[in-house]
Amino acid sequence: MAGKVMHAVQYDSYGSRAAGLKHVEVPVPTPKKDEVLLKVEATSINPIDWKIQKGMLRPLLPTKFPFIPTIDVGGGVVEVGSNVKSFKAGDKVVAMLNALNGGGLAEYAVANESLTVSRPVEVSAAEGAGLVIAGLTALQALVNAAEVKLEGTGQQKNILVTAASGGVGHYAVQLAKLVIHCTEGIPWSTFEPNLSSSGKVIDITPGVSAMWTFAVKKLTFSKKQLVLLVLIPKKENLELIVELVKEGKLKTVIDSKFPLSKAEDAWSKSSDGHATGKIVVEP
């Protein structure tokens, strides 16, 4: 699709929230040898997206301006790179875009084959787009950090999920059926008196205070632990949660949908923090 242009939404500086988003016409990206070009059918906004715009990850992200945000997408394959073997034009997929490049708030985006999975007909583009960061974070919090066996084997565990109506929280509740701490601003001291002797708080939004508590608990060999979760995206994990949605064992709760032309409204709703489930933009 060399030479063609597309509608996209980008920002060119830190700050300004939704007012900083600009609607532009930019060239359709060209996939590299290990990438697929997608027609974006849906993308979801995560809190990390507007936090990056706010400057909370500077100077790491964005790597450059202007920047097209969001990395969770559901769509269809339009073109594949020379080394891509698993997909062909016309395939329906769910993908996690490269966090350094972003690109989801656009009509087309490129994704690496290694973080692109097939999307069955039972899973809509919006459901798939809502899954990626939130679903993977919930899965890894439960399986890796809390050591929960999703198949029901192993020791039974008591699980508390805070901010359970949010993006990560609503998946964690379903996958769990320890403590998974999905909200911000609640200190360790709130949880510690209520933990069992070997209880864990798994913090998916760690700040400086949480990092200090984590270090102290490790150094003092405390049985009560604060676990800091850093998402490590894996294709097999993404395939698993897509399959769970297909089988009806996991559901993406969609708070609201917006067209790309109203991306600012979706951005504002996410940054206001009052969504129940996922906020989806459909180009």
TrEMBL record:
Coiled coil region boundaries: none
Chain ranges of the Enoyl reductase (ER) domain: 16-281
Biological source species: Solanum bulbocastanum (Wild potato)
SMART domains in UniProt: PKS_ER (SM00829)
PANTHER family linked to this entry: ZINC-TYPE ALCOHOL DEHYDROGENASE-LIKE PROTEIN C16A3.02C
InterPro entries tied to this protein: ADH-like_N, Chloroplast_QOR, ER, GroES-like_sf, NAD(P)-bd_dom_sf
Gene3D superfamilies according to UniProt: Medium-chain alcohol dehydrogenases, catalytic domain, NAD(P)-binding Rossmann-like Domain
Any GO molecular function: oxidoreductase activity
Name this polypeptide is given: Enoyl reductase (ER) domain-containing protein
Superkingdom of origin organism: Eukaryota
Classification via SUPFAM superfamilies: GroES-like (SSF50129), NAD(P)-binding Rossmann-fold domains (SSF51735)
Pfam name, any one: ADH_N
